[in-house]
Design brief:
Helices cover 59% and strands 12% of the residues. The protein has one domain: Arc Repressor Mutant, subunit A (Orthogonal Bundle), CATH 1.10.10. By secondary structure, the chain is mainly alpha-helical. It has a three-stranded antiparallel β-sheet. Helix 1 runs antiparallel to helix 4.
Length: 118
């Protein structure tokens, strides 16, 4: 029961929910999340820490960079719920569109993480 409560508390914040929906789709670093969400690094890092503590996301280190993705252990029912909630929310749909534009960008200024360009 305590684990379930921790998960729901972690997802009760709109910033954390937006991040969760983005990392469900693919692995991202903080700078990519900053670009999509238009938020400061400290706010995003705090949200990521909460999601990690609730075992909702995993991280992978590459040198000094850390990449985040949805935890492999997420129950399929939770994934389905999250995906369904995205379809009903304009903000999260806009986040997905913005992420797609960043992924497709050919211009260095519009690119995502500098590490991805190496």
């Amino acid at each position: 029961m305590e684990e379930t409560t921790k998960i729901f508390r972690a997802l009760a914040d709109s910033t954390r929910m937006r991040i969760m929906l983005l990392v469900l789709k693919q692995e991202l670093c903080v700078c990519e999340l900053e670009s999509v969400l238009s938020m400061e690094q400290s706010r995003i890092s705090h949200a990521l820490r909460t999601l990690r503590d609730a075992a909702l996301i995993e991280e992978r280190r590459d040198g000094r960079w850390i990449f985040y993705r949805a935890a492999a252990s997420l129950p399929p029912s939770l994934i389905s719920y999250l995906e369904e909630s995205e379809r009903d929310d304009e903000q999260t749909l806009a986040d997905s569109e913005k992420m797609a534009r960043l992924l497709e960008s050919e211009e260095p200024e519009g690119r995502r993480c500098p590490l991805r360009d190496q």
